[in-house]
């Protein structure tokens, strides 16, 4: 298995393995517990317990905001403290529940901090600083617990001397961090990223804030325990171990993993039904309530932004900001599905059932109970489409939630469940504008993460039902029993219906053919690009007329992206084509479409002035090389510097070599001669036709442009098709070929004639194209990519004459402008570059031909 596949599937395997292990532990520990005992334990929790837990939760989130306050002080960025604290609280409310803290928490921070002048680089340093703070307190408390109280929670699982050794190691890590803050003042550079170590007072502040944060988080759980429970020290030790495994599992909120560890470690001190009841309430108070508040705040902020018509930066449509609300709504949709499934797997309140039975028929309870579980499965499936912002998914989820409210009330007067679904409906209503994608509902395969999550949810509901009705002896007759108090048969039928529905959907989804990833444009689409391209100052968009790249248009058909796919790499050629205002939406749509298919979105040869658009969407970039552009006003053959040009032109004139530009409408008549020159060139050079980023000899493509030719004794010996930008801004060529009969210096002569022609026709620039790998950063502090690329540029002449190409273009004294590759980050860049090369060559085997 390739390293990339290992990196892709290893976290999933770890997550699923830990979930399965957690489920097994819970089953082993709870097999003697009765479901009714758990419900009774929940009822015994007083309002005092709940009130204290809420109070400490608020205190915990306030202390968590100090992470960001310290980080801003460290990087020296002046932002109002109230803004920092509010943003930090929202980010932790989201990341605690959604999981993947670096992604989800950073998304919230980017949304707000970018408005107040915080750059992407600053945000990266804040995230690194906060991560260090988070782990510093954990190591400190874990070290204290293991080193000085090893028997509190190990219960013989680890030898005491091993526990003490681990504790001492954790303490040494904390001491080492503090020592570094004293003795090392030089920044640390890792893969081109520079991290400045904090001062000793700041490091001590990190330690204090993190320790208090962990203490308060554990206290929320502690105040929910009965008075007969374990001491605070024992609870803290168990809490740290459970949180650590939950974080390492990457399961959102550590669901299942955290709970199973707590059940095992607190088992000797409390009845298991009380532990389970406390954990359920803890999750509602510490995770669900803050997440709901954060979602309301984020949706309200977006509505405020739209009404106030904020500036482009704060109103930009960002993968890490605007996409956050749909991601959270997707999580809530999934939770709603789980709630409906779980309610269908547990006994109803019989008092409420008897009250309903006085006016409604029993058959209605059976039907609504069955439908309730089916709606739950539907919401689990639709959650994926919600995260992709599909418009039809919005309406289906709203209908599903409304139906869930009705079935919850009709099946057992479950008003608590109905209120929860109503709150979710209210959260969806103002978020309608997020769902603007017209893509098909299920046009993509579900990722392994989604498949695992849905299967775990359904499996957990079945396990819960078996746990709740373990006292009922199984018999085949149960499937057919219908009655007011027949909860177990209703659970069996609902579970079977849910499993059949999920199986049917899976079979349909797996067997139906996926839409083709690449559909080359037809003449109708090419004609739609004419007006767009003719309004562009740059000439690169003419590559769309090769018809070898797919075209992604915006809804208004005023802009497009041309792209190709090789393996999992989706490569957009250049920046979006069209007015500046359509670029952010097109970039976002391309990224989403690539993500739909599990692809990696890449933007190749983007300009420096558009980099902020990709940074806004959370992308990284590297420099590919530099593009050579010759200023045409004032270009001439006069002067000492142009002596070689004059000599060449005069020499070819004496050899009866003439220059001419054939208008596009007349190119067809010369196509046969052009084909002879092209075939001669391919044979002489022993190369194959290129595609994607370079033109190839295609009669239809060539005939769309004027063609500059050199003739010798009436025969064409060299040619190049001519790209001309709008408003006389830029002139360029794409396909350049010359025959073996062409005189020495033919292409130089062709360029010189074109530059003079462009000057006389009032063009501003002649584009000589990009020189790959040139102009990259050098020296010991250069990023790793720049060092590798620099070595290839200097010594890779057997692969491609990088250095010679730049030297050739330099003799025309051009202005060099950088070109970049925008990518999601943390990718295997060599593989990405190989995929791009394969797109241009027509396959990996043709890269060096």
TrEMBL record:
Location of the Phosphatidylglycerol lysyltransferase C-terminal domain: 536-823
InterPro entries cross-referenced by the UniProt entry: Acyl_CoA_acyltransferase, L-PG_synthase/AglD, LPG_synthase_C, PG_lysyltransferase
Membrane topology category: Multi-pass membrane protein
Full protein name: Phosphatidylglycerol lysyltransferase
Lineage of origin: Bacteria, Pseudomonadati, Pseudomonadota, Gammaproteobacteria, Oceanospirillales
Leader peptide range in chain numbering: none
Gene: mprF
Family recorded in the similarity comment: Belongs to the LPG synthase family.
Catalysed reactions listed for this entry: L-lysyl-tRNA(Lys) + a 1,2-diacyl-sn-glycero-3-phospho-(1'-sn-glycerol) = a 1,2-diacyl-sn-glycero-3-phospho-1'-(3'-O-L-lysyl)-sn-glycerol + tRNA(Lys)
């Amino acid at each position: 298995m390739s390293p990339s596949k290992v990196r892709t599937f290893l976290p999933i395997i770890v997550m699923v393995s830990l979930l399965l292990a957690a489920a097994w532990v819970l089953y082993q520990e709870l097999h003697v517990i009765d479901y009714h005992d758990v419900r009774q334990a929940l009822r015994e929790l007083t309002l005092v317990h709940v009130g204290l837990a809420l109070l400490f939760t608020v205190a915990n989130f306030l202390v968590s905001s100090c992470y960001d306050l310290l980080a801003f002080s460290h990087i020296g960025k002046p932002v109002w403290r109230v803004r920092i604290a509010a943003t930090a609280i929202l980010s932790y409310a989201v990341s605690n529940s959604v999981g993947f803290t670096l992604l989800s928490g950073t998304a919230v921070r980017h949304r707000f901090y970018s408005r107040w002048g915080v750059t992407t680089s600053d945000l990266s340093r804040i995230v690194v600083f906060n991560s260090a703070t988070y782990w510093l307190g954990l190591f400190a408390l874990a070290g204290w617990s293991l080193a000085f109280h090893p028997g509190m929670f190990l219960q013989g699982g680890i030898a005491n001397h091993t526990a003490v050794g681990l504790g001492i190691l954790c303490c040494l890590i904390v001491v080492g961090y503090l020592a570094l803050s004293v003795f090392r003042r030089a920044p640390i550079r890792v893969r081109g990223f520079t991290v400045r170590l904090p001062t000793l007072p700041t490091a001590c502040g990190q330690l204090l804030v993190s320790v208090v944060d962990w203490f308060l988080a554990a206290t929320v759980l502690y105040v929910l325990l009965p008075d007969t429970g374990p001491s605070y020290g024992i609870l803290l030790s168990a809490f740290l171990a459970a949180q650590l495994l939950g974080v390492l599992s990457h399961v959102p909120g550590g669901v299942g993993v955290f709970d199973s560890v707590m059940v095992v470690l607190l088992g000797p001190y409390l009845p298991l039904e009380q532990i389970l009841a406390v954990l359920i309430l803890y999750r509602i108070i510490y995770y669900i309530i803050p997440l709901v508040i954060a979602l309301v705040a984020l949706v309200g902020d977006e509505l405020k932004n739209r009404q106030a018509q904020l500036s482009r930066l704060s109103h930009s449509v960002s993968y890490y900001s605007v996409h956050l609300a749909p991601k959270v709504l997707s999580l809530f949709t999934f939770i709603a599905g789980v709630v409906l499934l779980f309610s269908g797997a547990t006994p109803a309140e019989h008092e409420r059932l008897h009250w309903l039975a006085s006016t409604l028929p029993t058959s209605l309870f059976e039907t609504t109970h069955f439908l309730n579980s089916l709606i739950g499965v539907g919401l689990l499936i639709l959650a994926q489409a919600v995260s992709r912002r599909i418009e039809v998914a919005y309406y289906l989820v709203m209908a599903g939630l409304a139906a869930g409210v009705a079935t919850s009330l009709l099946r057992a007067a479950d008003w608590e469940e109905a209120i929860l679904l109503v709150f979710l409906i209210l959260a969806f209503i103002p978020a309608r504008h997020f769902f603007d994608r017209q893509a098909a509902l299920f046009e993509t395969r579900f990722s392994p993460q989604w498949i695992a999550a849905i299967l775990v949810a359904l499996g957990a509901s079945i396990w819960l039902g078996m746990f709740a009705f373990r006292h009922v002896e199984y018999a085949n007759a149960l499937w057919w029993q219908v009655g007011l108090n027949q909860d177990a048969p209703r659970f069996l039928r609902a579970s079977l219906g849910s499993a059949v529905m999920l199986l049917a959907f899976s079979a349909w989804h797996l067997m139906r053919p996926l839409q083709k990833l690449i559909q080359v444009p037809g003449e109708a689409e090419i004609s739609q690009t004419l007006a767009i391209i003719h309004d562009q100052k740059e000439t690169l968009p003419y590559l769309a007329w090769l018809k070898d790249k797919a075209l992604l248009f915006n809804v208004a058909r005023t802009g497009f992206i041309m792209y190709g796919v090789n393996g999992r790499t989706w490569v957009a050629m250049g920046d979006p084509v069209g007015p500046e205002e359509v670029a952010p939406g097109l970039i976002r749509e391309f990224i989403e479409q690539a993500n739909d298919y599990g692809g990696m979105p890449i933007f190749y040869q983007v300009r420096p002035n558009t980099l902020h658009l990709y940074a806004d969407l959370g992308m990284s970039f590297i420099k590919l090389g530099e593009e050579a552009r010759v200023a045409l006003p004032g270009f001439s053959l006069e002067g000492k510097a142009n002596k070689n040009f004059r000599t060449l032109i005069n020499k070819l004139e004496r050899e009866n070599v003439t220059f001419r530009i054939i208008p596009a409408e007349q190119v067809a008549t010369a196509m046969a001669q052009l084909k002879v020159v092209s075939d001669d060139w391919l044979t002489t050079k022993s190369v194959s036709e290129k595609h994607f980023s370079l033109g190839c000899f295609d009669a239809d493509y060539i005939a769309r442009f004027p063609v500059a030719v050199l003739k010798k004794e009436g025969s064409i010996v060299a040619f190049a098709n001519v790209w001309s930008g709008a408003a006389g801004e830029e002139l360029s060529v794409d396909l350049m070929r010359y025959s073996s009969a062409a005189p020495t210096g033919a292409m130089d002569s062709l360029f010189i004639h074109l530059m003079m022609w462009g000057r006389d026709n009032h063009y501003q620039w002649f584009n000589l194209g990009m020189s790959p790998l040139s102009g990259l950063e050098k020296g010991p502090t250069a990023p790793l990519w720049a060092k590798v690329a620099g070595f290839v540029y200097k010594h890779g002449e057997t692969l491609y004459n990088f250095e010679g190409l730049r030297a050739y273009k330099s003799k025309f004294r051009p202005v060099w402008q950088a070109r970049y590759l925008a990518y999601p980050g943390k990718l295997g860049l060599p593989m990405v570059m190989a995929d791009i090369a394969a797109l241009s060559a027509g396959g990996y085997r043709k890269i060096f031909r």
